[in-house]
User: Fold this.
Amino acid sequence: MNKPLLLIAITASTISLLGCSNDFVETVKNGTLQTDPQRSIGNVFDKYQDCASQKWQHIEGVNGENSVLFTCKINSTDPFLERVKTHYNNALQRLKTHEAVKLKSILAGNPPEAVDGMAKIQHIKESRLALQFLFTNNKSTFKISNAAIEFFWDDDKYSTIPIPSACYGNAVYNNLAIYECIAQVSLNRDDGYPFAHISRAYDIRK
Assistant:
């Protein structure tokens, strides 16, 4: 799978792996977030149980800005897709038995569109968590400037959706599946989010 592991907002000119680039990576990994100032970022993210194949990269942007990109393969992708498949099959059954009014209430949207969204989501073959730590001009402080889930579809397309800090912060620092925070509404209460959100990402895929 030869896809760039970059967030939409990043316009990188070079990805450095040697020399001073290691200083940027180590600065991030040794730093802390307000979520838990007692634990280093590296200790938390490298031990996050919903992550596999963690990777840290220093990126120098076209205007000389420095950032560190953290990516990892999300382990809970397959369980999430299984739950989507169950909801999809149940939705189809409701449509077949002409329970359109009930289905509309359950999915919080137009039934055919909601079902179509779930159908698209089933074609995700891998997803990754990606966070960009952007350094300030003094190169000693940084902030998370972008956080997203990257989707790789079985037709070799690629797309992303942004995730809020409350979502990834709670998931990573409490060792919860990342999909639990973005999908708890749709999968626990049976309404339409984030089915439409993720399926729209497919429609504007690269």
